[in-house]
Specification:
Order of helices and strands: HEEEEEHE
Shape: globular
Largest sheet: 4 strands, mixed
Distance between the termini: 26 Å
Structural class: alpha+beta
Number of helices: 2
Radius of gyration: 13 Å
Strand content: 25-35%
Number of strands: 6
Length: about 100
């Protein structure tokens, strides 16, 4: 997949949507310095780093939750969309609703 290609943009958006649709996930996390992102022309998909070798998804989870189960659910859902290994990192936890989740 070429960096910045239409296919990569579509895949990164699908991965982000899939991760956010998992119960318990309240947001995507861009990393400590904003380094977790897929860079596209004119924009970036934060919380998802999609390359030819790996799909990294960094999430924020609502607590209380079974953190390993939430991460596994994200991995399973995203794995159906990409042809590379999926790595899920729980970057933060959040007590509350989806609105106002940290990014």
């Amino acid at each position: 997949m070429n960096p910045g290609s239409a296919a990569q943009a579509n895949a990164a958006d699908l991965v982000a949507d899939a991760a956010l649709s998992v119960p318990g996930v309240v947001g995507l996390h861009r990393g400590a310095f904003g380094e977790v992102a897929t860079y596209l022309p004119g924009r970036r998909v934060e919380g998802v780093r999609l390359t030819d070798q790996l799909c990294a998804v960094h999430i924020v989870v609502r607590i209380p939750a079974d953190l390993p189960a939430v991460a596994d659910a994200v991995r399973v859902r995203v794995s159906q969309l990409v042809d590379v290994p999926v790595q899920v990192t729980i970057e933060d936890v959040h007590a509350g609703e989806r609105e106002g989740a940290p990014s």
